[in-house]
Amino acid sequence: MILNYKNIEVHYKDEGKGKVLLLLHGFLENSTMWDSLKPELLKTRRLISVDLLGHGQTGCLGYVHPMGMMAETVAAVLKTLNVIRFSVIGHSMGGYVALALAEQQPNAIEGLCLMNSTFEADDEARKQIRKRSIELAQGNYEALVRMSYVNLFSSESAKKYLNEIEAGLNQALKTSKQGYVAAQEGMCLRSDKLEVLKNLKAKKWMLMGTKDAVIKADPLKNRIGQTDIVLKELGCGHMMHLESITELTYIIKHVIE
After folding, report:
1. 40, 87, 97, 193: least surrounded by Cβ within 10 Å?
2. Is 33:241 a contact under the CB 8 Å cutoff?
3. Whole-angstrom Cα distance, residue 237 to residue 243?
């Protein structure tokens, strides 16, 4: 389905019946990342998945996509569908967008799950990595995307999930250079959102991978220790929807639900 929004096309899918579960993909992904989870989730939920700005088939709104701008675009989709209340799962960058959406519409959210994601802002080292990636994007962009995507997997997983990685990489390569740059710039601008998450009157989950090289769980545990945010760890890396699909599906259906 397509929403014409600010002179661009925003692509999304609206499937199933029941309470709404909004699915937000990560950087260099698109709404197809949820396909392996959908058969089980559709048994009880109405699923809305959106191609975020500059990803999949959705266009760009300039060369900087702040997470708030991405959240506003998602909100426009929800408004078109007359969705008032919903739960949301955000993978990696999608988690940042979910937090921005929670800041904008706290009363609309029934549950929020950060999957391989964080409420923390980028530190200076991470910002420099993003800036360097933006510079490299002006050169061999395809090689950069390949490197960026494969680096999301541990060396063990990279060998074990060759077919899944290749399929995901084919989707990652559909991300335009403008979309790549705009997302990196937008992620650099993020502020810490722990207070947003703490104050949200909804069920709150964080799903982390013990082998995740991008998001480390231990520093986050200390910051959420006295809150109602539930953190659960799976024995996988940053791409748990590929590396631990059975366990992840079970957790979403029987724990978070």
Report:
1. 40
2. yes
3. 7
DSSP 185-243: HHHHT----HHHHHH--SEEEEEEETT-SSS-HHHHHHHSTTSS-EEEEESS-S-HHHH
**CA pair distance 212, 152, nearest whole angstrom:** 8
Sign of CA dihedral 257, 235, 225, 213: negative
Identify the bridge partners of residue 86 per DSSP, sorted by sequence position.
109
What's this model's pTM, rounded to 2 decimal places?
A: 0.97
Domains delineated in the chain: 2-256 (3.40.50.1820)
Q: How far apart are CA 113 and CA 251, in angstroms?
A: 11
Whole-angstrom distance, CA of residue 198 vs CA of residue 85: 19
* Cα(198)–Cα(225) distance, integer angstroms: 11
d(CA 178, CA 196): 29
Q: Could you tell me the mean pLDDT of each successive run of 10 residues in the chain, 257 residues long?
A: 97 97 97 95 96 98 97 98 97 98 97 98 97 95 93 83 91 96 98 98 96 92 94 93 92 80
- The single-letter code of the amino acid at 96 is Y
Contact 37, 100 (CB under 8 A): no
